[in-house]
């Protein structure tokens, strides 16, 4: 399973991408990531990126998951409307080192 988090920081426009591949994790860590994806009901989520007009500097998260069967799904969600069930998954992904930008 490959899981990516692309975090965009509101007004500054800073974008950080982090990707975790379960083939590079210990068995326990890989199982934890799979459990977080499952518990978040990720493959049934839809994009919720509408930030209210009075919120100027909200973060936006794009999550991309490719499971072990090749099934892919992506959603973009504003932190303002972030479902509680996705917070543990995002918190875990934010622990991964950011990817370097291509030059």
Q: Which features characterize this protein?
A:
103 residues, alpha+beta, 4-stranded antiparallel β-sheet
What is the C-alpha radius of gyration, as a whole number of Å? 14 Å
Strand order, largest beta sheet: 2-1-3-4
Helix content: 10-25%
Instruction: Give me the secondary-structure category.
Output: alpha+beta
Poorly predicted tracts of residues: none
Tell me what portion of residues adopts beta-strand conformation.
25-35%
SSE order, one letter for each helix or strand: EEHEEH
* Mean of all residue-level pLDDT scores: 89
Amino-to-carboxy terminus distance: 27 Å
Shape: globular
What is the number of E strands?
Answer: 4
List the domain count as a whole number: 1
Structure, explained:
Helix content is 19%, strand content 30%. It has 103 residues and is of the alpha+beta class.
């Amino acid at each position: 399973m490959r899981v990516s988090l692309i975090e965009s920081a509101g007004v500054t426009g800073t974008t950080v991408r982090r990707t975790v591949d379960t083939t590079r994790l210990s068995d326990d860590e890989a199982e934890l990531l799979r459990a977080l994806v499952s518990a978040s009901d990720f493959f049934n989520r839809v994009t919720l990126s509408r930030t209210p007009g009075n919120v100027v500097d909200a973060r936006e998260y794009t999550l991309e998951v490719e499971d072990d069967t090749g099934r892919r799904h992506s959603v973009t969600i504003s932190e303002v409307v972030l479902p509680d069930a996705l917070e543990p998954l995002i918190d875990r992904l934010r622990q991964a080192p950011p990817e370097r930008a291509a030059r």
